[in-house]
Amino acid sequence: MNEQIDTLRVVCRLDELADPGSRAFTMGAGDWPLRGFLVRRGTRVFAYVNRCPHAGHPLNWRPDDFLMPDSSLILCRSHGARFDISTGLCVLGPCSGKSLQSIDVDVQNGYVMLTRDPDELAARFA
Q1: CA-CA to 65 of 20 to 30 Å: which in 40, 45, 47, 110?
Q2: Domains (range + CATH), the chain
Q3: Beta strands at 105-108 and 34-41: parallel, antiparallel or unpaired
């Protein structure tokens, strides 16, 4: 990797994320690391904490499976809630009007990176 890249904040390479597609990640140390997921749409990447605002559990049952079959919305597999990809807003389901907790990410030199330290984010979202 390029020396200017903070490897502790790298989630994955952009080319490892399907377009459109999603991917789970766990980052940070300790018993309560940051658990999130990415969604890619073209050159844009969105990241959210992997926690349903309705029930507080992960949105996916299978690894990296966060999207509707047509990739148009994020889907909570437990209760069927659907979320806008770019805002995280629940547009249908038991948590309608609530939002997923977004995580700021950047794409730098072909890598998707957290903009903040993963342990700091884990403590914030625990």
Answers
A1: 110
A2: 7-115 (2.102.10.10)
A3: unpaired
39: helix, strand or coil = strand
State the CB neighbour count (10 A cutoff) for residue 26: 12
Q: In 97-122, which positions are buried (b, 16+ CB within 10 angstroms) versus exposed (e)?
A: eeebeebebeebeebbbbeeebbebb
Whether pTM > 0.90 for this model: the answer is yes
Q: Which residues lie below 8 Å from residue 114, measured CB to CB, with a gap of 6+?
A: 9, 11, 27, 47, 103, 104, 105, 121
Low-confidence ranges of the chain (pLDDT < 50): 1-2
